[in-house]
Please model this.
Amino acid sequence: MAIGSAEITVPSKPRGESKVNSVDRALVILEYLGTQTKEVGVRELGQSIGLSKSSVHRILQTLRSRGFVKWNPDNARYSLGMRAFEVGCGILRSMEVHGAAKPYLEQLVSTLGETAFLGVVDESELVFIDKIDGRRSVRMYADIGSRQPLYSTGSGKALLAQLDRAEIDRILSQKPPQQHTKNTITDVDTLRQELEKVRRQGYAEDNEEMEEGLYCVGAPVFGYSGRPVAAISVSVPKMGPQPVQKDRLVKAVVQAAQDISGKLGYTGRPKAASLG
Model:
């Protein structure tokens, strides 16, 4: 799966070029290249983001000189460079939860044999910041850096349920529920009832709501202040040679989330407002 699926917003063409507009256009190019799984030519890139070939070429040369893009001399095409990866990883180094969660994700995979995820909320969406593949050869919907809706994923619902009513309203107005599978909850009132259930029980289920054939359990991770800072989840095939062992899965995920929260200094009850 390509990393990231958000729409790329192309800046309007200004009357006069400025440093700010140049930076904006460079960022658009980096965002576009970040969604591609193959190298891209200058003409194709310009047509895709609405910039002239000369403008794209000029910006690419600057980005290339800084290591943010790399050029393949065999086909004259471009892709993201390692410098972009290094800068992107900087945010992970600043996230205490990423380091704290790593060994627990590894333990989940070792114990359950399934794929484990760590996600955070960004711009009303769930962003996966870590993923450890399980032993099963099962296609997973998400990769590190990809975005998914909060309302139809295990991690997303686990986090959404911890927010107050006003924040939930804001998120659902920005990202109205859309049908991904026949099991996706798109009715807002039904979703609120689901979130109330999630808040009470301390974990969320994605019962083929994002991708058919996959079942997921997610649980929130709290910081020292009692606020949710992330969520972890484990996804398993809904159908297969080994049936889903729900109780074992839920117990392992919830315990891991609690252990990570403890590492972050959380000692009390989560500060969650009623959704009623």
Q: What stands out?
A: The beta strands are 69-72, 77-80, 115-122, 125-132, 147-148, 204-207, 214-222, 228-237. Residues 13 and 21 are 8 Å apart (CA to CA). The two ends are 38 Å apart (CA to CA). DSSP finds nine helices and eight strands in the chain.
